[in-house]
């Protein structure tokens, strides 16, 4: 990257131009240190330390250590927990984190899980309401008043209504049972996501999984998706209770019809 400096006269006519090289590592460490203020991703580094004050000083990023120097207070694993010092989940080339928070990253990954693992598998198909199994109909038509119930119902609509093969019977039954428990308030959505992650782990290598040609990669994707869902479910459930949204949610099918 080059910084172009223009010299002008009193009438603002350009009299001279100069280009200064300005290169950075993926984590924002300067290779060259010209006398320019603008830093990596448009951030301005601290003049004394060279750290980046992300989120208006919310957290400091150390470009040489390639990590934050303080834990993320929003980390789902608690202060000092796993990866709470990591910048962009270790992938600064494909991701950016201008605020220094983990919430947006988790939300993005959970959305990617919903649209990748349970995505449209039939080219040219359009979303509809053709549900392959009674369990799918039960999940989608239930009054999904929980964060978990809404997410699972939406995933079933994206998957089953577009002609994708149904999940094995064991998983269908477990999803239906867990959605009912979450919708009745017997278990929080966090627990529901964790239970389904455990169900997928135990399903790996079983005769039913082999017969359905469900690979370990697919199971790993499902487990990660539910773990990410658990990380955001607590806040969503609390927000729904505070705002009264938990008492006024329509079924997922009614939302689709609208």
UniProtKB/TrEMBL annotation:
Domain of life according to the entry: Bacteria
InterPro entries, alphabetized: Rhs_assc_core
Protein name stated in the entry: RHS repeat-associated core domain-containing protein
Organism for this UniProt entry: Pseudomonas mosselii
